[in-house]
Design a protein that fits this description.
Length: 181
């Protein structure tokens, strides 16, 4: 290479040095910008992961609490059904005993009436005994039917009391949940 060519190449190198410095400076700025952007993105990602984790934990706690409440509610509902069934069974037993007592009293009354009618000496006495027996049987039947009806109503009300209480509790919880939501 001749001297002129070397001088020209040196002049070109000298002229492009500021451009190379500018490219290096621009590249450093871009690299710095990319680095800052990556760091910001990483921090944002970490914040998003942290927030998501917190929200999932809160949701899990709410779901766990709801499951516990539902389990307790269902257990209490089953207890109320069992209690109502027990009351009903005892009531049916009382009604059965009352009915058997009435049947036994009717049997004894029928036997006494038959003896009295068999001992009647006149037709008028027989008709009077029959009339008295029919009237007293009807009165006893009305009295016993009324008594059995009252027992039946009481048993029904007592058996439904625990169920009504549970319905009120469930409605109250649902109303509170709806108001809170």
């Amino acid at each position: 290479m001749n001297q002129k060519s070397k001088a020209a190449a040196a002049a070109v190198d000298e002229m492009t040095k500021p451009m190379d410095s500018g490219f290096v400076a621009g590249k450093d700025i871009v690299d710095n910008f990319v680095k800052v952007g990556q760091e910001a993105a990483q921090k944002g990602y970490e914040q998003a992961v942290t927030m998501t984790k917190e929200q999932v934990e809160k949701a899990r706690d709410v779901v766990a609490k709801s499951v516990d409440e539902m389990s307790s509610l269902n257990k209490d509902n089953v207890d109320a059904v069992v209690q109502a069934g027990t009351i009903y069974a005892k009531g049916v037993e009382v009604i059965g005993k009352e009915f058997m007592s009435y049947a036994q009293a009717r049997l004894e009354s029928n036997m006494a009436a038959m003896k009295a009618m068999m001992g009647a000496r006149t037709l008028k006495e027989l008709v009077d005994l029959q009339t008295e027996y029919a009237r007293s049987s009807f009165d006893q039947m009305v009295t016993e039917t009324t008594k059995l009806s009252e027992i039946g109503v009481k048993v029904t009300n007592d058996a439904f009391a625990p169920l009504n209480a549970r319905v009120n509790v469930v409605v109250e919880k649902m109303t509170k949940s709806a108001a809170a939501a």
